[in-house]
Amino acid sequence: MSIWDEPEVDWTTGAGLRARQLFERAYSDDVAIRAVAERVGIEAGPDPPGVGAASWTQLLARAAAGAKMLDLAAELLADSNRAWFATPLTALLGDQLPLVNAIRIRRHGLPADEVARNALIQSVLPTAGGDGTLLVQALAVERAPGEAKDVGFGLQSITVPQAGVIDYGSGFAALRDAGRRMALIKRNGQPIGTGFLVGSDLVLTAAHVVDDGGAVGADANGLVAVFDFHAFDQPSVSLAERGSAVAVAAVLAQSPPTPEERASTAINNWDAPLDKLDFALLKLAQPTDVAAPTEATRGFYKLDPQPLDLNFVPPPEVFHFPLGQLLGYSSIVGTFVSNASGTRLRYSSNTLPGSSGGAIIDHRGNLV
Q1: Which residues lie across from 341 on neighbouring strands?
Q2: Residues 51, 48: Cα–Cα separation, whole Å
Q3: Fewer beta carbons within 10 Å, N or C terminal of the chain?
């Protein structure tokens, strides 16, 4: 037994202390602590008593009790922004490293760099045994595009290293939450775009959806957000009557698009300035939920202040109302590219008029 598989650990001495100090230095503020806890599926607690040792002592205790310590280690090893901590964590893991790397591959796929990819695969291959790791071992084997490699596992191989393997539970929950939190935006009964909840009574969308053709300081006259607009609801009524419409009380804030984007020539306006972010924050006339997110409530997406990591594994999806019709989602192909100022991202997917303002959601249900 070790700190990685014991349900109760003393985090003030020995290996427990070293592990706690490692994690508290890697994730030193409350926002980062909550973010990594959420990614691993550990309850961070409603009000941690502070940052550093106090928060991590509680969090590690929950991780150990819930058999999540190896998942937590895999998350840190996969974090390219904290690569400095990989060496001391590897030493602390000891003979648990192959299993942690197998978990890392399952959650994040394989690195794009060939040397790093091969090293990670080799670290996992010796883990065959009766504890279920043989399946993960088989999943770890990869083939380069167009190249056949005889690695002894036949059909059990990863042929798209960056695709990863989606967890059914989190993937299903992400789809369910998206269906509840997306809204068709209408003005005077006409569909004009897509929005999504970022608070119980707050909807985020694109400014060009609601700015009425370029008017500065557009008002909320005639704006509604329609939730639950799905094909299988109320089949006896017309499409226009489906869903739950909530009036928009005010446009709280907005940053306009560029003139070129209004003219549909955005490809020539890659370096948009900081005052042209093309977003609008709408306040609803009433909350859609007042309780914390549960099976029976909508919840809303959190706006994460952390810098965006563009290396998504697997790629996220775009949720939107193309042509103002029923809610759909489209896969993103390839990688994201950011401009120098960080005001725009480029990606490849299928969208249509009415898709503007839609949300990009990863497979764990996080807002991109």
Answers
A1: none
A2: 7
A3: N
